[in-house]
Amino acid sequence: MMKIAVASMGNMVAGHFGHCENFNIYESTNGSITKVQSIPNPGHKPGYLPNFLGDMNVEVIIAGGMGGGAVEIFNERNIEVIVGAEGDAKDAAVRYLRGELKSTGSICHEHEYADECGEHQSQK
């Protein structure tokens, strides 16, 4: 079994990890999603969310953009980070399971410009 978390605004991938409304958590077995749950964002505090999700045994986090500090904590906990995703959250999880969703590596370095995090151009 694998757990994939998608930082979301309802059922859509959120542009910025820390400012999402909720996390859609998808459990998959043999490449198929077997369970879905939505958890409200418990609050954006530095370093809190990556550990919150890690403690839930999440193995992959999918988001539109993410700050470098969060990426570092996910890396320390061996949680795969996929950024640059957009569209339907469940679709993003399914595409990940099929090996079709790759991270663009767009990391948001300046929190003063958090509004622009969703504006990163995909690297072709």
UniProtKB/TrEMBL annotation:
List the source organism. Answer: Caproicibacterium lactatifermentans
> What protein name is recorded for this chain?
Dinitrogenase iron-molybdenum cofactor
The record's annotation in Pfam families points to: Nitro_FeMo-Co (PF02579)
Q: Which CDD domains match?
A: MTH1175 (cd00851)
Q: Which InterPro entries match?
A: Di-Nase_FeMo-co_biosynth, DiNase_FeMo-co_biosyn_sf, MTH1175_dom
Domain Dinitrogenase iron-molybdenum cofactor biosynthesis, first and last residues per copy:
10-97
Taxonomy of origin reads:
Bacteria, Bacillati, Bacillota, Clostridia, Eubacteriales
